[in-house]
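Preliminary data (for renewal application), manganese (II) ion complex.
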Amino acid sequence: MIITLKKNAPIEEIHRLHDAFEKSGLEVHEIEGDNYDVWGLVGDTASLDERDILANEWVENVQRVSAPYKLANRMFHPDDTIVDVAGVKIGGTEPIVIMGGPCSIEGKEQVIRIAKEVKAAGGKILRGGAYKPRTSPYSFQGLGYEGILDMVAAREETGMPIVSELMSADKIDEFVENVDLIQIGARNMQNFDLLKAVGHIQKPILLKRGMSASIEDWIMSAEYIMANGNPNVIFCERGIRTFERYTRNTMDLAVVPIIKERTHLPIVIDPSHSTGDWKYVEAESLAAIAAGCDGLIIEVHDYPDKAWSDGAQSLKPERFANLIGKARKVAKAVERDIE
Ligand code: PEP
Ligand code: MN
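Predicted structure:
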């Protein structure tokens, strides 16, 4: 339930109302606005009668929220949330952030080499997988901790923050210590224990959409993280499974305005895992920027034919740089910048 309060309400009255809600077992989230203050009540509000609350002369408006997500809901937080990833801000009217890097880390030398190319092209955050969720148990599973340390070395070399996927809660300390943005992969979007675990830390989370998750399922997963105490969530759409076989997954870009309308959190698009083919990555990236996304995460490899995973969808550094050049022009058309 959302309660809108008049600005000049006496403080004793505010405390009285606040206590009354808390006594009935509700959490009160206060958001200060310029003209009104807004309270989001989280918990079972079924027994509250809107008319009783509206009878209070300092209450301007009362609205029931039918969506099951509260903390992620834009009604609870009308302003855009801006997530700070080790100094790189994502969301609102901040510049669009391009992240790039290999699907898998293949060693220190490889990741540093690619990181330098990503940075020179205009990338702001380095991606790289050390723990890989592979469909086949016989495929390369990632370098693990060694790969994380290679990413740390690439950050030291380039100054770019790093994003990497966390697959299980037992590695959370390793990630909190070393990684700037923790990715929850599509396959773990509804691993609720993992979501709760990353809710207990404050590091920003890049929450990928599950390949068969509805938008509401996905927002509820963000709600899990936020309800456990971590407000720093960034959505990442990477395409869903449909009957279509000419792309690896199906990207429905309407998700960008829908997420922006219903939530206050930033959204990033992954054109690599959605298309599955480097040839389509540029077109989808430009369309995503036109649609209003806050960032892109793109797989980049200098020898895609030799990549240990996802070579077919990885851009060579020159193509990545070229894409960013075009992306700047599209961003301008929708009144955003790319630094
Ligand atoms: C990845 O980013 O390397 C990855 C495995 O992505 P997803 O979880 O979207 O499949
Ligand atoms: Mn990949």
